Amino acid sequence: MNYEHLDPYKKDILIVDDMPDNLRVLSSILTREGYNVRKALNWQMALTATQTVLPDLILLDIMMPEVDGYEICQTFKAWELTADIPVIFISALDDVFDKVKAFRVGGVDYITKPFEFQEVLVRVQNQLALRAARLEILKLNMELEHRVKQRTWELENALQKLHEEIISRQKLQSQILDIALHDSLTGLPNRVLFIRQLKNALNRAKQEPNYKFAVLFLDCDRFKVINDSLGHLVGDELLIAIARRLQTCLIPIDTLARLGGDEFGILLENITDINIAIQVAERILQQLSLAFKLSRYEVFMNASIGISWGNKDYDRPEYLLRDADTAMYRAKAQGRAKYHVFDPAMHQEAIQLLELENDLRRAVERQEFVVYYQPIVSLNTGRISGFEALVRWRHPSRGLVSPIEFIPVAEETGLISAINTWVLQSACHQLSIWQHHPITPEPLSISVNLSARLFSQPNLVDQIDRIIYENQINPEHLQLEITESVIMENTNAIKIILEQLRQRKIKLVMDDFGTGYSSLSYLHSFPLNALKIDKSFVKRMQENEENMGLVPAMIGIANSMGMSAIAEGVETQEQLVQLRNLNCDFAQGYLFSKPIEEQLVLKLLATAPQW
């Protein structure tokens, strides 16, 4: 970019992001709003840009190669020329730890990706206004000092002018302080002021043994749906209404703040015990359950609330807010429209979860996963008809990690897509090897679970085609297992993908049948080849004769629709006999074999087991 052509009358914004698409979108938005926009893909480009022309504002991504956003911000703050330039972090990281760190290294604001364009513009405008006001103050101070030196002989007039300037300065400072410490939409204290209030409460608790307080972190559960469907103006009107309703649940000494987006913080002071905080939370949930009558719409809203007791042993006020945030997520996980009180063990769990997530990201890069195989037995012949591929994580220090522990984390972080594709590739490769071995029975199938996340990828079928082609396997010997939640996500889109797979003669199996939606209309609508009966139903066959009717019903449903029935978790001979009597087609479980490593599969097939 030719910096000589920059319009000196426009505010100059530098965007630092290693993703060209992000740079292009942000640059387009801000340029349309009348700003000079410059772009930098990395730290070196950002340094060169600031050395050439000092920007008025920097938009900075966190996750970048070599030097991350935190380090870039610290470097800018350490350099005298750029120390006062406001830095707004824009990042996909949404954890409270990342936000706190961003503010600690000198950021003035934090926007979470995917961002709303209007939110970015408002925050940019606010920070530029604050910077302009600060520069105006500096200018006024310099002019004031110059006038005092030049007019010392006009003492009376100088004193009068000085008095007027001081009043003007105090007024401007008061305005700036109000902008900096309050939310422009609701007028409530913002996160900065709320943290200050928490710090005061914490210091008071350390000095006064009888002083008690609590922190509530509130997150609106359905706000994004309303905001996206009815528009930002309605969303803003709703946020104002929520703020007003929250205020009716509190007393004057309590502090209500808007922390950002649809998040609110509440400081309850001079309370005797945690039950008072719980009563406030219950009152808030009850009030928020009532309809909001806006100017054009009537909408319903609920919230999840985390409660943190103001223990004087806390070192920093941010930790109080962090723990209340942690408790809020626990409340949300319990079904939303609930509250949860923070327990210290939850923080340790959060740390362990974060460590697990970090280890999991490294595991994907280092391919620390291994596929185990569990035989699927035909109950007509009593012999192995195929294997299910089951992923295990061979952690460098913890050994084998159970899928129950890491699969939910992989789903939440999006890493499941890479893991799932790798498992499919590995399983198909292994099937190709086995099918060329003389002891392998014909036909031998391989069954692989597909995550719901994979179906959001537009090239899923192409990926499967490539894997089949590369490994030269017969697609008729490949079985893909999906859960009921997959077909509930987007009926038309999923139906198209499943139909394309059926045309390739790939078998489709509904996994864990009976544990999800179990809508027979969906079974009719999708080209499924088999239903997999969850092990919980198989286990109850022996425990309670009254539940015996569920398994026959499931087998009957499969047979009536021309599908096979596969029973999971078969562990006893009695269960095997019962399933055979019910005309179940296939079964798998520890009665036949636990999941085994690939090198043991041929040994198992060589024994030609018969059940």
Question: Would you kindly provide a written description of the structure presented here, covering whatever features stand out?
Answer:
An eight-stranded mixed beta barrel has the order 13-14-16-17-18-19-20-21, surrounded by six helices. The mean pLDDT is 88. The radius of gyration is 31 Å and the shape is elongated. It has 22 helices and 22 strands. The longest helix is centred in the first third of the chain and has 34 residues, at 117-150. With 611 residues, it is an alpha/beta fold. α5 (117-150) packs antiparallel against α6 (155-181) and α14 (416-435) runs parallel beside α15 (460-471).
Structure summary:
The chain has 611 residues and is α/β, with parallel strands linked by helices.
SSE layout:
Blueprint: E1 12-16, H1 20-32, E2 36-40, H2 43-52, E3 57-60, H3 69-78, E4 87-91, H4 96-104, E5 109-112, H5 117-150, H6 155-181, H7 191-207, E6 213-220, H8 223-230, H9 232-248, E7 255-260, E8 263-269, H10 274-288, E9 292-293, E10 298-299, E11 303-309, H11 317-333, E12 339-341, H12 344-366, E13 369-378, E14 384-395, E15 399-401, H13 403-413, H14 416-435, E16 445-449, H15 460-471, E17 478-482, H16 484-489, H17 491-503, E18 507-513, H18 520-525, E19 530-533, H19 535-543, H20 550-560, E20 564-567, H21 573-581, E21 586-587, E22 596-597, H22 598-606
Parallel strand pairs: 1-2, 1-3, 3-4, 4-5, 11-12, 14-16, 16-17, 17-18, 18-19, 19-20, 20-21
Antiparallel strand pairs: 6-8, 6-11, 7-8, 9-10, 13-14, 13-21, 13-22, 14-15
Largest sheet: 8 strands, mixed, barrel
Number of helices: 22
| CA(first)-CA(last) distance | 74 Å
How much is the average pLDDT? Answer: 88
Strand portion: 15-25%
Strands ordered across the widest β-sheet:
13-14-16-17-18-19-20-21
Q: Classify the secondary structure makeup into a structural class.
A: alpha/beta
Backbone CA Rg: 31 Å
What percentage of residues falls in helices of 4 or more residues? Answer: 40-55%
